[in-house]
Amino acid sequence: MATRDNDPPKGTKQAPLSVPTPPTRSLQVYAVDPSTGRNRYASNKTIVQVPWEPLDPGPTGKKIAVIDYDAGGKCYYPPIDLEDRLLLANHGLDPSEGDPRFHQQMVYAIASRTIHMFEVALGRDIHWRRADRFGDSKENNMRKQDDIHVLKLYPHAMQQANAYYSPQAHGILFGYFKADKTPQGRNLPGQLVFTCLSQDIIAHEVTHAVIDGIRTYFTEPTNPDVLAFHEGFADLCALFSHFSQYDSLIETIGRTGGLLYQTDLNPISSQTGKGQNQTGEEQKPQFTGQISSMNPLVQLAIQFGQASGSKYGLRSALGTRPNTDDYQKKLSDPHFRGSILVAAVFDAFFTVYMNRADVLFRIYRAGGSSERNDDLPAPLAQLLAGYASQTAVSFFQLCARAIDYCPPVDITFGDFLRALITVSKDIDPVDDSGVRDALMEAFRVRGIFSETASFYSEDALAWSPESDLPAVTGLVFGSPNGLTSAEKDHNGNVLREWANKNRAVLGLDPKLSLTVPSFHPVFRTKDDGRLRVEMVVEVIQSRQADFDPAVPSAGSFPFRGGVTLIIEAPQLTSGHGAVEADPPKPKVRFAIGKGMTSPSAKLREEKQRGFAMSLGMATGDTTDPAHFQANFGLVHEESRYG
Question: Distance between CA atoms of 583 and 275, rounded to whole angstroms?
Fold first, then answer.
């Protein structure tokens, strides 16, 4: 029998075939939530790609673990095994409201995708809430009770119209509840609604956990903007995720004429014979195809909102109109205030999208068509979808990176605006699309300004680069795979020693001890395409401040200051293999802080005292640190979920 030239000789053993690890895992999910039906171009079922990792039943991975205990039924549901070969072949289970195993799958899938979005934007792996333990003392090297190493997700944690991130539970608790008996949307009156089946709610809650891992002190309501920032940013992440779903995006573009910011989609079929009928009444739609529907791209948590009796979702991307009054109202309502931040960012987003799409609309109009034509040609719709998706990705990455450029404590919307402008100048110095101008105008018309900027211009709003601070000698930046334990201990000691020597320049109190709660090496590309390696560092000081200085027995609150350091790794300039006589050292690019010794610190303390007392924090156990931490369960419950 003839043999091929490449066949191995008889009797020889072939090496086992090496199968590479796939980069992603495909999982089926609801595209929005169970209440959204199929439309012309898109089903409500979609497949998301999440980073591949070995999974135990649950699913349980490296960063998240699904634990499905039903508090109402007082039972554990069998955990899904996504490593099962049949489930791997089928992209997991088909979406189902009635199968708890699919609930587990969807929570894991959207949580994994959200984490990946942040890691791509930040240029590093995220971790959950940790305590400062880097140093030589045994106490610092011990695991601490409030550390979260694996975020636990509980799909059926409670029978409540609520879902929230709980540091005490080391995870996120999702509730389920009965819909209102007054029918709204596609819900049956009184049917069960599961918050764990809403992409928006999952992404929102995971974002709370991510921010808490990046900035632990952003859970202390030191001013009206702090918790509002938490809520607003969580909504931003959920809303920007909508633009990653191509089929839904194409459908929305087709039914809005490309004007994605519209609240409602135009009807599938236009009404014919408009005017009055034979009895003189206004002609009404004769079938559902003539009725407009809500725009899912700009609505948040549609099923939850409708199950609670609303016509629309829980919140929307443009929920507040441009005005300077709203920012001064409801100072203690994080969701109302957070919606102002969301509206400002999406105002800028839609402005930039329309600027980028304008040339396409001009070409389209040159052919004799109207840009408001509902039935856009497929090539135009596809180009617009590409613009919208790319703009959404760039805006989310801009927002996520801006967190690294915020002060480590007492954040305000003005601080966030300055961080956005700084990051934008870093990423795109030319800014042909007008991102910075759109952001500045959107914040300005809503009365959001920075108290620390001298002028309302790009240069004044961007944080000033540091030139006077000395180099941070001995800092180890590691590799994109992260720092080793020894490198973390070394860096912690180096950073504490450096910060202690430079207290005065950093605005820190010479009499107070300082901590370095976090430092993260990040690997990003510069505007010229070169790799930029940096270290993002938090330095914190704390002291107790009396609620009433004249009556110390009235209790006290934690008053904190600190600085965020952006330290750039040195770039070698010599030729290959050359050893430089005086190699460059890591330099501080930015020092962004809230001081402890300046007159502004005294004013900040007075404002924090007044705000804390307005929230009732002067009562209760003021010696308990948890007393001054946000309880997201209560925050969400007070606003009918958030």
Answer: 80
For residue 180, count other CB atoms closer than 10 A to its CB. 17
Residue 563's H or E segment, with its range, is: strand 556-568
- Find all residues with CB under 8 Å of 610, minimum gap 6, and list them: none
Based on the structure, what is the number of domains in the chain?
Answer: 2
Judged on CB neighbours under 10 Å (0-12, 13-18, 19+), 369 is middle
Asked if 371 and 258 count as a contact pair (C-beta separation under 8 A), the reply is yes
Q: What is the dihedral of CA 490, 494, 500, 506, to 10 degrees?
A: -120
Establish if 268 belongs to a structural domain.
no
Is the residue at 18 inside a domain?
no
CA proximity to 350, closest of 428, 450, 243: 243
**pLDDT tens per residue, range 258-297:** 888 888 777 766 654 454 455 555 666 666 666 667 788 8
Last residue of a domain, one of 184, 214, 244: 214
Q: How confident is the model at residue 546 (pLDDT cuts 50, 70, 90)?
A: very high
Q: Which residue has the tokens 């009444």?
A: 281
Pairwise CA distance, residues 39 & 30, whole Å: 14
Q: Give CA–CA dist 223/215, Å, rounded.
A: 16
Which residues lie closer than 8 Å to 421 by C-beta, 6 or more apart?
Answer: 436, 439, 440, 458, 461, 462
For 621-642, write each residue's pLDDT tens digit: 888 888 898 888 888 776 555 5
Q: Do the Cβ atoms of 151 and 139 come closer than 8 Å?
A: no
Residue 404 lies in a domain: no
Name every residue whose Cβ is closer than 8 Å to that of residue 286 and which is 6 or more positions away in sequence: 271
Cβ neighbours around 542 below 10 Å, total: 18
Which residue range forms the structural domain that includes residue 512? Answer: 485-573+582-638
- For the whole model, what pTM was predicted? 0.91
DSSP-derived secondary structure for 66-130: E--EETTTTEEPPPB-TTSHHHHHTTSSPP-TT-HHHHHHHHHHHHHHHHHHHHHHHTS------
- pLDDT of 299 reads 87
Q: Which of 159, 182, 214 is the last residue of a domain?
A: 214
pLDDT top residue among 246 and 9: 246
Helices (H), 215-271: 224-241, 246-256
Contact 23, 51 (CB under 8 A): yes
CATH number at residue 179: 3.10.170
Q: Which of 92, 104, 97, 96 is nearest to 66 (CA)?
A: 104
Based on the number of CB atoms within 10 Å of its own CB, is 599 exposed (0-12), middle (13-18) or buried (19 or more)?
A: exposed
Place of tokens 């180890």: 476
Count the Cβ atoms, other than its own, within 10 Å of residue 570: 15
Are the CB atoms for 235 and 204 separated by under 8 Å? yes
What are the φ/ψ torsions at residue 399 (nearest 5 degrees)? -65, -45
Tell me if residue 511 falls in helix, strand or coil.
coil
User: Of all helices (H) and strands (E), which one includes residue 166?
Assistant: strand 163-166
* Two structure tokens written together for 117: 């979005």
How is residue 327 annotated by DSSP? G
Within a domain: 558: yes
